[in-house]
Specification:
This protein is α+β, with helices and mostly antiparallel strands. It has four helices and three strands; from the N terminus they run αβααββα. The chain has a domain of about 45 residues. The termini are far apart.
């Protein structure tokens, strides 16, 4: 049963675009649109388009940081 325990404890390293959209409270269409614009980072595996969990976390971290106003 060690294999079962190991696989259950694994977190997803990537999400498909609709799932990433759900995590961000976005519609499927909006998630794909933002992915096409490069706003949501993606990697293509053959025909499959995925969003790396780490890149999504970094995107949210950078959005929550205040911007420097050095004007």
């Amino acid at each position: 049963m060690a294999i079962k325990e190991t696989t259950e404890s694994l977190e997803a390293l990537v999400y498909d675009v609709p799932t990433a959209g759900k995590l961000l409270n976005l519609s499927r269409a909006t998630a794909y649109s933002l992915a096409a614009q490069g706003i949501i980072p993606t990697i293509r595996f053959g025909k499959r388009l995925v969003v790396p969990r780490k890149a999504l976390e970094e995107l949210l971290q950078s959005a929550s940081k205040p911007k420097d106003d050095t004007s």
